[in-house]
Amino acid sequence: MFIYLSKKIKIAIPNPIPLKSIAWNQEQGWIACGGEEGLLKVIKLETASDKNSSNLTLNQTLSGHNGRVEVVTWNENYRKLTTADQYGLIVVWMLFKGQWHEEMINNRNKSFVTDMKWNSDGQRICIAYDDGDVIVGQVDGQRVWGKGLGFHIRQVEWSPNGKNILFGSSTGDVFVYNEQGDQISKLNMICLEGLTEAKLKAMTWYNGTFGYMQRNAPVLAICYENGRMQLMRNITDSKPILVDAMMRICAAKWNHNGTVLAVAGIENTAGSEEQTCTVQFYSPTGEHQRSLHVPGSDISGLAWELGGLKLSLTVDNFIFFANVRPDYFWGHFDNTVVYAFSKPQRDEHCVVFWDVKRKHHTVKYIKNLVNIAAAGDRCILCTKSDDDSGQHILIMCNAMGTAIDSKYIDIEPIHTHMSDTHIVAASNECVYVWNFASKVCQPNIFFFVFFLFSCAVFLHSWLRRFATGRVCTPFAHASCILLALAILRARLSLLLLYKSSEKSRRTDEKIFHIDDSPTGGKDTDPTRFRKARTTTQDPVCAVCVSDRLLMVSRVSGALHQYGLPKAALEIKHALNCRPDRIRLNSDSTRLAILDIDGVLTFFDPEAKRLNPETGNVVYGLPVEDFERKDVWDFRWADDNPSLFAMMERSYMYIFRDLDPEEPIPSNAYISKFSNLQVESVALDEVMSDPEHPTNTHYFEREIKSLRDTRTLLKTVTIEDAYNYIEQNPHPRLWRLLAESALGQMDLDIADKAFVRCQDLQGIHFVKHLEALGDKKKQEAEVAAYFQEFDKAQQLLLNIDRRDLAISMRRKLGDWFRVIQLVRAGGGASDQELKHAWTSIGQYYFERQRYQTAREHFAQAGYVKGLIESCFHLEDWKGLEDQIDVLPEGDDLLRRAGQLLATAGLSELSGKAYVRAGLIKDAIDVCVKQNQWDAAVTLANEHNVTEIDTLLHKYASHLLSKNKIVEAVELYRKAKSHVDCAKLLFDMAATALLNRKNLRAKKLFVLGAMEVEQHKDRRSGDQTLEGLLEDDQLDDEKAKVIEHAWRGAEACHFLLLGQKQLHASKPYDALRCAVRLTEYDDIVDPLLAYSLLALAAAATRNYAICSKAFVKLESLPKQGRMKAQIESLATELFSAHPPKNAPAATLECPSCSHENPDWATSCQACEMKFLASVASGRPMVDLEYWICEGCKHRAGIEEISAYQFCPLCHTAVGLD
């Protein structure tokens, strides 16, 4: 950072009344200052675009105090000012109609106020009196609490969250109280060890509003008059940072974001009794950054402006204002500004990559950011690793913020700099150099081609041997030799690559201790370096690097010069200052040095002089007659070693050699200086809203020679301008002259200028103009060169060369003008017109205006464009029309099929593939979209046999994931009815096991219906191939076909019997139960025989019931149920002997034998009786109804009560 005094305002006129206190309202910009004799003023600086304006928009004297105004403090949230004087009078001021007026007054009359502070939200104020009394009140004047602490109070401070209050006593002790006034603890003031007491002068606690510089950064500063300070992270910090300012401290204050602590006091001048008013600036870690000396005898207070860019100081009877130029984390490379800032809600730094040309920015979040450096087309983010290793990481990024390389280093990169080839990072003791542009072992393209050629020769030789059975011996031997050489070359390349990776750290990275004298050999090898923690008495304070030199300066003024790439120490120079920043010019012949006091000087490392004492030649001399003060930024030109720009106070100066141009008012940081143009970025404005950078904060300024050249080219002859540029040569000036000469058609001067700026393309262009001969054509070519294409077109039309105008527009890709010129009468072939319409269509297509693109494609007859446009417009009918128009086998049909497949239109996609002759692709589309019926149809039509294999493979995949329903649907669509039925039967069996009888019946019926569809298909296919296919079915599938309805019948009779039993129809239930016993391989025997036992017992057929109990008792794995069945049987048959009751009979239609009406077959001839699906009774009637779906029977009278078949639910259809 850099700071300089910018304004001085005398408050009391004409009487010189000393000032004692000051406060700056950071929200509204008001400054309140108090002094002797009751002096109290509120002023406000002008907020104009000129930030250095000293005009005041408000200067009001407030009357109300009679004594010295000791304390002034702002309540920014409620726009109130609170002041207190030496007699204890407290006044609260409010703003009314642009003027400040008294709102409340309080006078305790017992003691005076030593300090008072508002909390962070402005709700409460804490007032501390000298006698130890404390009052905490609300913003409306109501007292919250008050008490005496029992000691003299000097300072008070709120914690950021308002939960705690710190009180500093007259002896230097600091006590912690909660918001209710109860003491919590006493801080351990380690900085006072060895002292009995010390006068406390300041306590300031940063509230974290703008985030933190780093995690666990100190935020509480406690300062004593003797110069000792203690910086703490919190009130329980056991390891605070101790600082001795070596001066008598009067005041201290954090800036707006807690990154700088300003400490004001009186410093004794070394070697004399003179005292100087001084402001010292410290980082949160206690590192001294700057000192500012202020004229005057007594400094009493300081205050920061919001943003931390201004500081106000009360010195004697004056207010001094100082401008602060912060050291932002930022850099510029490849038209990109990279900068970092902190967010209150995040621990990481927010790093923004802002492309100023494309007006686009990218945001990244980086933990533990330490520094940023940038050059060329890359930047470096220096971070600290999260672990406890103490290592730091150098992350190399491109303009998009993407990390492309990184290095771990064992030193802290306090000082960093970067060139196009090297990165240097230095701690206080060590210097690390990374040559990131060095070449490593790269794959050889010649070797790659040689290896492929050898493999091709070898493969061709052996394929010929297998094809012909003969081998050309010389050719085969040559192929083997070539392949062996290629493999040997590969092994050698891998070995070299491995060795190069082993040596990469030794060749690309160098590290050395600043007290050593490295020679560039093993003493800079990072793998052998062991001095990373070795301290030095003369720390490093600045570094810079170019393509051939490394400069390192030390606090004592020693300047070390190292040669690159070896990093060998060449010479040591001595400077008369302590550098803060050093930079080499573009050819490393001059070094710019900016010291800690803001003085800029030059040093010539190659200058020689003879030492009169020793007679030896001494290298390196300071440049005489050049010294600039109050400089805070500078930059050498990238392409001219004699040009540089610098920022001095609020002005930018541009120098050629040592001659300055007229100053330019600016507060921007210089980002780039090249091509006679200085680019700068107003980081102060950018940081006010860092997440939304705008190009209004980025400036480009031309230097005087470029501006003068433009003026000369307009006012003098081309020859005079040539002479001027010859005296001030630069490639951009020569290019400017060449363009001006072309405009005046002075080809001789243009040719010379292009030669001087080494523009080969421009030279060829001039030769081309000379070859044309025709002046009008030359003028048209020059107009086109300057991109004045309308002018060039008109010139060509004036000489009746419409063909050249069309050719020019065609080269530009301006097809609209091509069409316009052709329609206006230019000669062009139909092919050229078609190409023009096609190009216009492509123009609209690329901008997603597909409807307009289709219209132009239609005019051009460009079918591919029409297909693409119809696809994006989802015009499937138009796309189908294009498919029909295209001839079979056209390649565009494949593209149409691909597009339709992505849209899920398998039918149209298959149609396109079929017309293209890609049957397999058509089938694949149907398969991928689960359209197996269409896939099977296509396979059958075109005799594709692989479909079945693919079908079963996909089904197995679904089954492995337990997707049985999806597999069933797959088989159904593929018309693989038997496989589908098998899966449905398996699902039904699982449902039966889970006692889901109705679901099981439905699944069995579905499976049986699939089998019926299979039979229907085979009944229509009586060819030999179809019959052989049925014969080749395995036993399991044959069983499925043969007993298709058996499972459905079992579930049907189980459900029907249970229904009849619950409906008090035991005789009907008995018939169903007896028939159900024939299906005990499907239905659980426990269910079947239990139903039979119940129905038999209900109809008093105890013989049948006894047989059912015997079967139940013989069932395995019953456990306790078996004992219950035996007990129930004993009880039942003790009362009822196992005899059947008389029952109705039915006559066998075959042998006329009388059988019980529940019989399932004839007891005499064993003829099977078919069961009625409506009631379960045996069917011996000659008249019956047959279902068209399942082919099962029922009596005419029984089925008349149903609309659908009781088994398969097919419509009955009785007329």
UniProtKB/TrEMBL annotation:
Main location class: cytoplasm
Highest taxon, organism lineage: Eukaryota
WD repeats: 62-93
Keyword Transcription: no
GO cellular component, one term: intraciliary transport particle A
Entry keywords, A to Z: Cell projection, Cilium, Cilium biogenesis/degradation, Cytoplasm, Cytoskeleton, Membrane, Repeat, Transmembrane, Transmembrane helix, WD repeat
TM segment ranges: 445-463, 475-498
UniProt key word Membrane: yes
Coiled coil: none
SUPFAM superfamilies: WD40 repeat-like
Residue ranges of every copy of the IFT80/172/WDR35 TPR domain listed in the record: 733-823
Domain IFT121/TULP4 N-terminal, first and last residues per copy: 1-325
Residues covered by the IFT121-like zinc finger domain: 1172-1212
InterPro entries associated with the record: Beta-prop_IFT121_2nd, Beta-prop_IFT121_TULP_N, Ift122/121, TPR_IFT121, TPR_IFT80_172_dom, TPR_WDR35, WD40/YVTN_repeat-like_dom_sf, WD40_repeat_dom_sf
Chain ranges of the IFT121 second beta-propeller domain: 330-438, 499-700
GO biological process: cilium assembly
IFT121-like TPR repeats domain sequence ranges: 1042-1140
Compartmental location: Cytoplasm, Cytoskeleton, Cilium basal body
A Pfam family that the UniProt record links to this protein: Zf_2nd_IFT121
Protein known as: Anaphase-promoting complex subunit 4 WD40 domain-containing protein
